[in-house]
């Protein structure tokens, strides 16, 4: 599984090296390979024993920079003993950190939970699947989420439990996103944007709910078979599935519009008393880096599906025309 990530990333890095720089993102320019490495170097990267089976996966450029020490910004003209003392003695070894246990156990929402779990796999899914299937100039939508989910499930294997967990997790993440967007702002002061006294209740309930829900979600991931997974869910009274359905129905009802109007009213009052940041841009202590993918369902699925169908039709027509010319 780790080898799949490394080989896939390597192929994309080589492909990026064939493109003009103006067509690449900063991340792609940093990881691209203009020339193929020697066979020995390539074998060393692929079969690097500390991460061969258990990971974490990393890009070839990181491996090469570590081997030749170019990742360390150290002047070569000055002897180490003659350099001024600028080190604190505190060393950070988190460049390839694969899990943040504290972030997982204290996560307030599914995104923060997933952001602290299997971090390098999340980075691979985002940089080499989620963003790669998105046409240039467009934002990732339903197709990107669908392809990311499918790749992640297929990467794990063919057991039904994997797909049960990933499908349910994607809908849970979408429900949590709606809660964070339309409910959380009520626990923030509309004037200052700071937490209200009731925010402590919100912060207390959210981590508990997140842990309970994901304890339900990962059951099929461990049991694997559909029959046994469904039996465990049945004995748990399908509480997470029922909860997600209720939340999605709630936010698909006029209640969503009512909450939006209430938020607009509170935000208008905040502007009246003084300027403050937009409610949708409040910083959060449990937010995760943008390097982590979002596997939730898009807000406007119909629009994204229509665009996807139109793009597929255009590709088919283009291939048909090229075949006729040949």
TrEMBL record:
<keyword id="KW-0812">Transmembrane</keyword>
<dbReference type="GO" id="GO:0003841">
    <property type="term" value="F:1-acylglycerol-3-phosphate O-acyltransferase activity"/>
</dbReference>
<dbReference type="GO" id="GO:0047184">
    <property type="term" value="F:1-acylglycerophosphocholine O-acyltransferase activity"/>
</dbReference>
<feature type="transmembrane region" description="Helical">
    <location>
        <begin position="238"/>
        <end position="259"/>
    </location>
</feature>
<dbReference type="Pfam" id="PF03062">
    <property type="entry name" value="MBOAT"/>
</dbReference>
<dbReference type="GO" id="GO:0046474">
    <property type="term" value="P:glycerophospholipid biosynthetic process"/>
</dbReference>
<keyword id="KW-1133">Transmembrane helix</keyword>
<dbReference type="InterPro" id="IPR049941">
    <property type="entry name" value="LPLAT_7/PORCN-like"/>
</dbReference>
<keyword id="KW-0808">Transferase</keyword>
<dbReference type="GO" id="GO:0016020">
    <property type="term" value="C:membrane"/>
</dbReference>
<feature type="transmembrane region" description="Helical">
    <location>
        <begin position="153"/>
        <end position="172"/>
    </location>
</feature>
<dbReference type="GO" id="GO:0030258">
    <property type="term" value="P:lipid modification"/>
</dbReference>
<keyword id="KW-0472">Membrane</keyword>
<feature type="region of interest" description="Disordered">
    <location>
        <begin position="271"/>
        <end position="291"/>
    </location>
</feature>
<keyword id="KW-0012">Acyltransferase</keyword>
<feature type="compositionally biased region" description="Polar residues">
    <location>
        <begin position="279"/>
        <end position="291"/>
    </location>
</feature>
<protein>
    <submittedName>
        <fullName>Lysophospholipid acyltransferase</fullName>
        <ecNumber>2.3.1.51</ecNumber>
    </submittedName>
</protein>
<dbReference type="InterPro" id="IPR004299">
    <property type="entry name" value="MBOAT_fam"/>
</dbReference>
<dbReference type="GO" id="GO:0005783">
    <property type="term" value="C:endoplasmic reticulum"/>
</dbReference>
<feature type="transmembrane region" description="Helical">
    <location>
        <begin position="204"/>
        <end position="226"/>
    </location>
</feature>
């Amino acid at each position: 599984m780790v080898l799949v990530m490394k080989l896939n990333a390597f192929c994309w890095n080589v492909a990026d090296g064939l493109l003009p720089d103006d067509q690449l993102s900063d991340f792609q320019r940093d990881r691209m390979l203009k020339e193929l490495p020697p066979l020995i170097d390539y074998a060393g990267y692929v079969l690097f024993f500390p991460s061969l089976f258990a990971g974490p996966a990393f890009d070839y450029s990181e491996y090469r920079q570590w081997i030749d020490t170019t990742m360390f910004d150290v002047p070569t003209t000055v002897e180490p003993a003659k350099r001024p003392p600028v080190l604190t003695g505190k060393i950070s070894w988190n460049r390839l950190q694969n899990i943040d246990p504290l972030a997982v156990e204290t996560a307030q929402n599914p995104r923060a939970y997933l952001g602290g779990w299997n971090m390098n796999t999340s980075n691979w899914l985002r940089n080499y699947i989620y963003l790669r299937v998105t046409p240039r100039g467009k934002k990732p939508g339903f197709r990107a989420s669908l392809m990311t989910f499918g790749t992640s499930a297929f990467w794990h294997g063919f057991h039904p439990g994997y797909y049960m967990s990933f499908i349910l997790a994607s809908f849970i993440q979408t429900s949590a996103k709606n809660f964070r967007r339309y409910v959380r702002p009520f626990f923030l002061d509309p004037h200052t944007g700071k937490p209200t006294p009731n925010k402590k209740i919100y912060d207390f309930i959210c981590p508990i709910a997140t842990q309970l829900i994901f304890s339900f979600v990962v059951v099929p991931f461990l049991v694997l078979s559909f029959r046994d997974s469904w039996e465990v869910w049945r004995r748990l009274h399908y509480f997470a599935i029922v909860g997600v359905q209720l939340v999605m129905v709630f936010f698909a009802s006029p209640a969503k519009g009512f909450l939006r109007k209430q938020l607009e009213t509170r935000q208008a009052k905040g502007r009246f008393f003084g300027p403050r940041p937009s409610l949708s841009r409040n910083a959060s202590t449990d937010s995760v880096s943008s390097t982590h993918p979002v596997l939730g369902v898009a807000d406007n699925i119909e629009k994204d599906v229509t665009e996807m169908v139109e793009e597929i039709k255009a590709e088919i027509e283009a291939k048909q025309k090229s075949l006729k010319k040949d």
